[in-house]
Amino acid sequence: MSFTGKATYSSGASLQDLAEDVSDIISIVSPYETPLLDHLGDAPREATSTYHEWLEDTLLPNKDVIDHDSLDDASKDTTSITVANGERFRVGDQVQAAGSKELMFITAVSSNTLTIQRGYGSTTPQELADTDTLHILGNAALEGDDAPAARFTNRQRRGNWTQIFTSALRVSGSDLAVRKLAVADELDYQKQERLRELLRDLENTVLNGTSPAANPEGSSSVRRTMKGIIPSISTNAFVPGASSFPSDAALTEAQLNLALRLVWENASSRIDTIVVNGAQKRRINNFITASRGYTTQDETYRDMVSIYESDFGVCRVLLSRNVPTDTVVLLDSSRVDVLPLVGRSFHYKPLASTGDYEAGELIGEYSLEFRNELAHGMITGLNA
Length: 384
Prior knowledge:
The structure is a single chain. This protein has helices spanning about 35-40, 175, 185-210, 230, 255-265, 280-285, and strands spanning about 50-55, 65, 80, 95, 105-110, 115, 135-140, 155-160, 165-170, 235-240, 275, 305-310, 315-320, 330, 335-340, 345-350, 355-370, 375-380. The chain is α+β, with helices and mostly antiparallel strands. It folds into 2 domains: about 35-55 and about 155-290 and about 300-380, phage-related protein like fold; about 65-140, Elongation Factor Tu (Ef-tu), domain 3, CATH 2.40.30. Strand 5 and strand 6 (about 115) form a beta hairpin. The mean pLDDT is about 90.
């Protein structure tokens, strides 16, 4: 027997007598994650000026480079060499060229010219070459001698400008009054959306932003901007094929491990954070492809490296859309802070209304404290 009662489909094409059934969930697909900011966490202090400064210091250098164009095959016998920075050396220093087993002893220093005793301690003289690194092992003082001339380093002041992030809100009185689907208060909803956008922009600026070349303090026509991480790294910026860095166009473990080692050799730092985009993250995942093993019972295929551990640091690998596709950023996160200007972390400021609407502005002012540029690094120019 056929069904003769009224059904929903008999209400007509528009279903005009049925109540709406709309989910109270609003789904957002636009990316708004901030993996680097989440990893760094809140800064332990605030900036108190639009130009935030910090102090950095170094120890006296214990190495230099040979700057002696005339060195040739007879350099096994030469007893006078020129270096780039003669003030780093003293009479009584034992020195050794990188990769050499020969020890040498400095007997005189005149400007950038060193007089040296070759084959010190019965070691075998070896060839020296221009641009070789010369390591200072240590100085030997004479018993009963006067104190040597005092040497010291000067502390350096580094700084970065703050940048103001803003977003305006304006909602009409009618829009606030009507009943909305999935939204209890339109103004509050707009605050949440704009705040997500500002946080997204803050992370992108922390990574890639830079300051204007002129009037960085800002003016009526120049906007003040902070200098980000990637533009701040210069010493340990490695490019495949340059300065004896492996020339592989695609990121390899040898390149990554060498970059970590070179940073470790130059600074009392261990990289603990690697920030990459999707393309380079896949390269890092592929490091373990050849050694991955499975049994016949395994039903899950795992292909992700979230921690990269080497002799030179245990690194968390962060996936960020804001890193350029050809770049791998290497950070010592203990030396990186994102600071709000005092009283200026992201907040909502109501604005005066001159009509039938509610208006306001989300405001935040932040700076990047990027300490000891030498303690960080990056690999750039990779095949994406």
